[in-house]
């Protein structure tokens, strides 16, 4: 899809499904079964949904956003040690980048921190450590419950997908994106080009400035969250483990307004050493296998080291059809 296609549709929330977390956890049998079914449909049709009644305090979300805003406003030399970091370094800061790729201009600062199994954080601002510890633990708990519900929605035991991906030892990363205001000539265009996320599930909230869009049926839809809701995006590992039944959503961030936009992302992914492949129960007799097993660490490194290109990274795991297998040498 050309990135210049900014057609949006689906009403103010883009028609994105809403999942009530409280019903998943505390609901009576019937409403809970309905919520699981709706969750499955959302993952199948959209690859994303909003979560309400999630139990993560607004003050904690606010503290995470505020602390990272402080980090972005620190002088360059305070962040220097993380500015040159590579994709597998546990703390990475990219700042003030305004680059032109394929004729589209991107405008974004970001902070990426590995948060589990071990929390890594920049030295400043000092309170970032505690805020990140609490925020990552709360959101990890929420995402692990969603992972069990997703497993059930596939007709499996709640523990099956978490076990297949070793989510107990999951890799978790926090990403904070800051899109500065733009008042220069012309449109900035994109803050972040179309991509799917390399992990399993991404949880996101923003500072009230819209800009996230998701693709469905070849059109971009505005992802405007309900007040207090989190936005959840299925990642590539969910697409792989479900053998393509659920899909990682293609999404992008559009910027260019007079107010800075910020988004805070908490993503869980398989344990770095887990080899992710479709669970056999979803591939009867091995027929119709869409993906082969790829170690998550290799997948992530591959996706992060190449130019962002929609869902192209998934091709390294995709089973090629019609190619005669070569004898082993
Ligand atoms: O800023 C946003 O809304 C999108 C961020 C995103 O997609 C990402 O960090 O992977
Ligand atoms: Fe993303």
UniProtKB/TrEMBL annotation:
Transmembrane segments: none annotated. Belongs to the iron/ascorbate-dependent oxidoreductase family. Residues 166-270 form the Fe2OG dioxygenase domain. It comes from the Eukaryota. It comes from Panicum miliaceum. GO terms for molecular function: metal ion binding; oxidoreductase activity. This is Flavonol synthase/flavanone 3-hydroxylase-like. It holds the Pfam family 2OG-FeII_Oxy. Keywords: Iron, Metal-binding, Oxidoreductase.
């Amino acid at each position: 899809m050309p990135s210049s296609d900014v057609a949006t549709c689906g009403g103010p929330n883009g028609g994105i499904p809403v999942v009530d977390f409280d019903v998943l956890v505390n609901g009576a049998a019937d409403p809970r079964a309905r919520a699981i079914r709706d969750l499955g449909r959302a993952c199948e049709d959209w690859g994303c949904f909003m979560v309400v009644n999630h139990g993560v305090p607004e003050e904690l979300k606010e503290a995470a956003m505020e602390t990272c805003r402080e980090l972005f406003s620190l002088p360059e030399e305070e962040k220097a040690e993380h500015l040159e970091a590579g994709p597998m370094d546990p703390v990475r800061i990219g700042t003030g980048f305004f680059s032109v790729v394929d004729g589209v201009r991107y405008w974004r600062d970001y902070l990426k921190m590995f948060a589990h199994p071990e929390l890594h954080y920049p030295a400043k601002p000092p309170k970032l450590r505690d805020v990140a510890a609490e925020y990552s633990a709360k959101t990890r708990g929420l995402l692990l419950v969603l992972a069990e519900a997703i497993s059930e929605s596939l007709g499996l035991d709640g523990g099956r997908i978490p076990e297949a991906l070793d989510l107990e030892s999951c890799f978790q990363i926090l990403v904070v994106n800051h899109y500065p205001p733009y008042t220069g000539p012309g449109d900035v265009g994109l803050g972040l080009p179309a991509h799917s996320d390399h992990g399993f599930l991404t949880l996101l909230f923003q500072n009230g400035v819209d800009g996230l869009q998701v693709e469905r049926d070849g059109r971009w839809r505005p992802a405007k969250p309900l007040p207090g809701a989190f936005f959840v995006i299925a990642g590539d590992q969910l697409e792989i483990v479900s053998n393509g039944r659920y899909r990682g959503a293609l999404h992008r961030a559009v910027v260019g307004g007079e107010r800075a936009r910020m988004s805070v992302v908490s993503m869980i992914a398989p344990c770095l050493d887990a080899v992710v492949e479709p669970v056999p129960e979803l591939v009867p007799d091995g027929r119709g296998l869409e993906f082969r097993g790829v170690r998550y660490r290799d997948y992530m490194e591959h996706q992060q080291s190449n130019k962002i290109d929609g869902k192209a990274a998934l091709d390294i795991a995709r089973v090629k059809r019609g190619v005669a297998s070569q004898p082993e040498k």
